[in-house]
Amino acid sequence: MYGSHEHAHCVEEAINTASRICDERGLRFTGLRRRVLELIWENHGSAKAYDLLENLGGDYSAKPPTVYRTLDFLQENGLVHKINSLNAYVGCSHPLQHKDCFFLICSACNEVEECCGTAMADALRDMTAKQDFKPDHTTLEIEGRCHDCQAGVQ
Amino acid sequence: MYGSHEHAHCVEEAINTASRICDERGLRFTGLRRRVLELIWENHGSAKAYDLLENLGGDYSAKPPTVYRTLDFLQENGLVHKINSLNAYVGCSHPLQHKDCFFLICSACNEVEECCGTAMADALRDMTAKQDFKPDHTTLEIEGRCHDCQAGVQ
DNA sequence: TGAGTTATGTAATAATATAACATTTCTTGG
DNA sequence: CCAAGAAATGTTATATTATTACATAACTCA
User: In terms of domains, do B12 and B87 share one?
Assistant: First the structure.
């Protein structure tokens, strides 16, 4: 799974970054928040709310609001994104810098890659400016096949 | 509502176009399908599945599968789009030509404008090509304020 | 006409998400 | 330290969105 890549490292790094960001902003990175973020990062795809709920384990009383509130917190603080086309959640890959980001979702391996290239953001800005539309939030999700999953599919 | 624009005309035109398209493709544009498409076009915003269900009226037995199947048919044939960020459905403005289209959603008046500009499509193609990602379907939904709803908001 | 196909009806339930209120835990000024 | 307020979590109930599975009806066309 995931080639030779030692994924535990990603998880650890994401948690450390999140912890640091919360410290800097005076937010509480509680056990529950840490646990949910860990679960989300524990695969390269996206996590569904009710799967998180099932896997919380430990001391956490698993009821939907527990998870949805935690997801809200993580989203508000830019640590997690919701993928609307999947009703699922992914960890944010660059929780500090990005403004507009978008997602490449591989329908074969289910990995979700977050992209923050400026070219797309520029094109979006141009387009909305042309229509005199003032954007607040952009959902850009592209489903298809990643490089690795195109082999043998022509 | 909707300024001086006589909206019944939009609805009628959309229905006529849909009917023609179905004829050309050997598809059955049944009473139910016509009715659902009418309801969807009866406002400029988007329609929710369960609201359609409530408003079917007439002879239609209103159970969820009735509506979802009809929405599936309309989507498959490019007559309707789902707006994932709203869990809602809009009529397609150009059911014949478009490939990649995207949506400007005004959070003040709830109108949804469908755009099919090539500039965005080009930017998307460039971006995915650069990552060697083969796109099958793109969700691009921009929520914000339309021209008319920016007055007085600075 | 009637056999096969397509569309719709119906019942049950799955999957996703929120509201409202209770309790616990943390923080911080005194 | 300690109590009061704030923030987080627990709990119950329910709302919203969507699908599965099977039955019936309506169309099509040989």
Answer: yes
Q: Is the CB of A59 under 7 A from strand D?
A: yes
- φ, ψ dihedrals at A82, nearest 5°: -90, 135
Instruction: Give yes or no: residues B114 and B84 share one domain.
Output: no
Interface of A with B in 65-84 (CB under 8 A): 84
Task: Indicate whether A154 pLDDT > 70.
Answer: no
Indicate if A121 and A67 belong to the same structural domain. no
Q: Are B73 and B26 part of one and the same domain?
A: yes
Q: What is the pLDDT of residues B89-114, one digit of tens each?
A: 999 999 987 677 899 999 999 999 99
Here the tokens at position A19 are: 């912890």
**Beta carbons of A136 and B145 less than 8 Å apart:** yes
Which residue has better confidence, A3 or A37? A37
DSSP A96-149: TT-SS-EEEEETTT--EEEE--HHHHHHHHHHHHHTT-EEEEEEEEEEEE-GGG
> Is A131 near chain B, with CB under 8 Å?
yes
Instruction: Count up the domains in chain B and report the number.
Output: 2
Q: What tens digit of pLDDT does each residue of A85-135 get?
A: 999 999 999 998 767 789 999 999 999 999 988 889 999 999 999 999 999
The DSSP letter of residue A43 is S
Whether A114 has its CB under 8 Å from any CB of chain B: the answer is no
Q: Chain A within 8 Å of B113 (Cβ-Cβ)?
A: yes
B24 burial via Cβ count (<10 Å: 0-12, 13-18, 19+): exposed
Count chain A–chain B contacts defined by CB atoms under 8 A.
115
Residue A70 within any structural domain of the chain = yes
- d(CA B68, C1' D13) / Å: 27
- The pLDDT tens digits for B59-92 are 888 899 999 999 999 999 999 999 999 999 999 9
Interface test with A, best of B83, B142, B153 (most A CBs within 10 A): B142
A140 and A83 together in one domain = no
Q: How many angstroms separate the CA of A25 from the C1' of C29?
A: 22
